[in-house]
Specification:
three-stranded mixed sheet; 450 residues; seven-stranded mixed barrel; 32% helix; Ku70, Chain: A, Domain 2
């Protein structure tokens, strides 16, 4: 376990919470040695006394400030503490501000504030109160010998302290030239804005930090092994000469680039929907009285243009056969290997059974669907018991019937408890995300009597 940087307090008003400060980040950088390129011997540095020329061991080194030419005042750790006793081992919250109002350029480094046994109740009180109010605490703190502006931020069960820059440490953006915020003056057209917005919507998704990996160390180690294997351990690689036109030299057809990008994004999203995005993901979109907040919108009407919005594994292109249509939608080998909810052994059962029966069981479900005469019995009636709708966010069935969810929420039920669209699930939400669905069902059942 990491060692604490210090043990101190979070202070707000007259209330103090005893905490320990731990670094939240950890480095994975490769260690390199300095070499003399003439014979590739390691280079060392010595700390030496500039008067005697003799080397000085670390135990004899102290900090000093040159207050006059050649004259120094010596400072110990105690001097640094006494310079501002209040902030030496304390995060002093001076104000609480709305969580989204601090510009990102102010944030620097995250730390964990860990409560000791005596402070857990007050720690939880501060954390949950800030979360409920949508606020973060802003104050000042001293870490080692540096004074910082800092934000105290609730994140799950943790209170984070994130060091911040002071306003005089932020370079004025007026030093640089940026495009105007007016679309008219920049020449951006309404159609370009529409396509760019579609591209952003198609690429949008929940925050999944595990989806991003720093592969540079692995790439660098691969390059190092290549040089060792090739016997180039003492060869300084020369930079390659750039070929062709530099980036930005060509005239850009922005509309064409946006259209191509949207095509690629559509392909990715259809593939994710097709394989049910088999990774476990506890994210849920909860929709109550705000249909516009849904990740996707229901079809506006039963027209060809609207049907074309559905994924191609369900609505086929006119000029393609089944095999030709499905090949681009197939998940990759890596995606299949990562799929936990339908292993090959279980898939084999389905394949063998469908081969034996010709999928008649599934087709009979459609053949036996109730006709209009059966549905007339329920015309004008409402569901008057607690009810909810749960489905996969990638399930085409949620979006295919124009206005269906709106009617379910507003006119067909009298005790509706909300719509839950589960991330990482398609048509088979109960198999793809059983833990998430079970949790939602239990929460619904607990509240059904209220």
């Amino acid at each position: 376990m990491a060692r604490p940087i210090w043990k101190g307090m979070i202070s707000f008003g007259l209330v103090s919470v005893p905490v320990s400060l731990y670094p939240a980040e950890q480095s994975h950088q490769l260690a390199f040695s300095m070499l003399d390129q003439r014979d590739f011997s390691p280079v060392g540095y010595k700390r030496y006394n500039k008067t005697t020329g003799k080397e000085v061991p670390w135990k004899d080194i102290v900090k000093g400030y040159e207050y006059e030419k050649g004259e120094y005042v010596v400072l110990s750790d105690e001097d640094f503490r006494r310079a501002n006793v209040q902030h030496a081992k304390s995060v002093d919250i001076a104000t609480f501000v709305d969580a989204g109002t601090i510009p990102p350029e102010y944030f620097e480094t995250p730390y964990y504030l860990v409560p000791d046994e005596r402070g857990k109740k007050v720690y939880a009180l501060l954390r949950e109160t800030m979360r409920a109010a949508g606020k973060v605490g802003v104050g000042q703190v001293t870490i080692r010998t540096t004074h910082h502006l800092a934000a105290v931020v609730p994140s799950g069960e943790v209170l984070l302290m994130i060091t911040m820059r002071y306003v005089n440490q932020i370079r004025e953006h007026s030093e640089f030239e940026f495009p105007s915020t007016s679309a008219k003056s920049t020449g951006v057209t309404a159609k370009e804005m529409e396509l760019a917005r579609k591209l952003i919507d198609d690429m949008a998704g929940p925050w999944k930090p595990e989806a991003f990996e720093d592969t540079y160390n692995d790439d660098l180690m691969r390059r190092i092994k290549e040089k060792v294997k090739a016997g180039e351990t003492k060869v300084l690689t020369k930079p390659e000469s750039e070929k062709g036109e530099p980036r930005g030299a060509k005239v850009i057809d922005l509309m064409e680039l946006l259209k191509q990008s949207i095509g690629k994004a559509d392909g990715r999203s259809r593939k994710e929907a097709g394989n049910g995005a088999g990774k476990r993901d506890a994210s849920v979109t909860k929709v109550t009285d705000a249909p516009k907040a849904r990740a996707r919108k229901s079809l506006a009407a039963r027209t060809a243009a609207e049907w074309a919005k559905l994924p191609r594994y369900y609505v086929m292109d006119l000029d393609k056969g089944m095999a030709e249509q499905m090949v681009p939608e197939m998940p990759s080998a890596a995606e299949i290997a990562a799929n936990k909810w339908l292993p090959d052994s279980e898939l084999r059962v389905y394949a063998e059974e469908y081969g034996r029966t010709g999928f008649q069981g599934g087709l009979n479900g459609y053949r036996g669907s109730p006709g209009d005469t059966d549905l007339v019995l329920f015309s004008g009636k409402t569901i008057d018991v607690p009810s909810t709708f749960m489905g996969g966010k990638s399930d085409w069935g949620v979006y295919q019937n124009p206005g269906a969810l709106d009617r379910l929420e507003k006119t067909l039920t009298t005790k509706y408890r909300g719509t839950h669209l589960v991330d990482g699930a398609g048509h088979w939400v109960q198999q793809e995300q059983p833990e998430v669905l079970s949790k939602l069902l239990l929460e619904f059942l607990k509240g059904a009597g209220t």
